[in-house]
Amino acid sequence: MPYTIKVHNMKASKVRAAFASALKKDRRFTAELSQPFPEGRGARDGSRKEGESFTVTRVRLTVGKPYCGQHPGPCIPTQVPIKKKKLKYLEWNDWVEFNNLVNAVLDELHCDADVWSFPFETSGRMWIRKGTSARIAYDYDEGMGRWGPVRVWNQGTPDQFAR
């Protein structure tokens, strides 16, 4: 799930360097960080204002664990036990912890930034941060799909962000 971090009040290269340092220090995750690039789309693409951006891709755990999918919420029990492969992909709690790491770095820098991603399990942009307001709560909507229960990440309602 690629992230975009759009910085408004400082150089994106400074934020990128701080985030790279935090990843090394934390040791739970690995990720690829793009070089900063100017972002000229402004509010047209959902972000509040102009700024430089960089992307975070290939987010992985440093140590593999049993994996059944990137779905939000706990694993859905099945009637037939399924053997889970040991992989380095992130699941619900892992993504929430990674989002918290992103917000902790931005809070420490007093950074005004918009952060979002486009997970497969949601329709549209999922917000992780809006300006100086970090997302502090995550939930999902449940429904029935073609093959059974389906969970969809919540995109981020106003009450899920710190003020």
What would you say this structure looks like, in words?
This protein has 163 residues and is of the alpha+beta class. It has one domain (3-160). Helix content is 20%, strand content 34%. The chain contains 2 helices and 11 strands; from the N terminus they run βαβββββαβββββ. The protein has helices at 12-26, 92-108, and strands at residues 3-7, 29-33, 37-39, 51-61, 65-67, 85-87, 113-117, 126-131, 133-134, 140-145, 148-153. Strands 1, 2, 3, 4, 7, 8 and 9 form a 7-stranded antiparallel beta sheet that branches. Strands 5-6 form a two-stranded antiparallel ribbon. Strands 10-11 form a two-stranded antiparallel sheet. Strand 10 (140-145) and strand 11 (148-153) form a beta hairpin. Helix 1 (12-26) packs across helix 2. The model has no long low-confidence stretch (mean pLDDT 85).
The helix content, as a percent range, equals 10-25%
SSE-based structural type:
alpha+beta
Rounded to the nearest angstrom, the distance between the terminal CA atoms is 26 Å
Proportion of strand residues: 25-35%
Number of domains: 1
Q: What series of H and E elements makes up the topology?
A: EHEEEEEHEEEEE
* Low-confidence segments: none
Radius of gyration: 16 Å
Q: What oligomeric arrangement do these chains adopt?
A: single chain
Q: How large is the count of helical segments? A: 2
Averaged pLDDT = 85
Gross morphology = globular
Largest sheet: 7 strands, antiparallel
Q: What is the β-strand count?
A: 11
